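Board notes (copied after class):
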Amino acid sequence: MAAALLGLLCVARSEAAESKSAAPRWTDGWFAEASAGVGIVPGGDITLGGIRYEADYKTGLIVQAAVGRAWTPRFSTKLEWFYRTNAVASLDGGTTRIAGGDLASTNAFLTATYRFGAPFEFLGIAPFAGLGAGILQEVDVDLDGFGGEEFSARGRFAYQWLIGLERAVGARGRVFLEGRAVAAGTQELASSAGPRRLSVDYDTWGIIAGLRWSF
């Protein structure tokens, strides 16, 4: 009897080990990811020299990289860095108009994501959602016609939320398509050429696509 029980235990341990080795690597452990996409600044105001300008921005670029850990097949956290830039199409201050410029930022965020499994998964594609908080390492504005004057600020708090779709690629990879919104509110930036200040509304949207690779 003891020998039979010992044999069953050995078989169970062997099957568990085989099942674990066959499981996709992305369900737990460390990972890295990279992505790129388009960013949108949905208008807002820029105030400079006592004049409030209505800003119009062009669609811009986002590039992102992250390292993180999947704690369960559904829950993961990551430390991510991303850069985004948008050209200023125009600033309209009524009687004063500025032709263009550039609004850009570098960002570091800690983000948590949750992957929805069955019954939400379809054809291997699963939705996910996430929340994050972090800092604008630097946000800066360059405006045409100001002789190279730059307005910038560092270390400003912001938060983000995101939703997306992902699909496993092999045992280690996942491809994803994600929409995200970053809320930073109104930021006051200092001039590189003197005591002037510029205020800018900096709430942004973005759509990115990328790859997550598990180790």
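Comment from the instructor: The longest helix spans residues 2-22. DSSP finds one helix and eleven strands in the chain.
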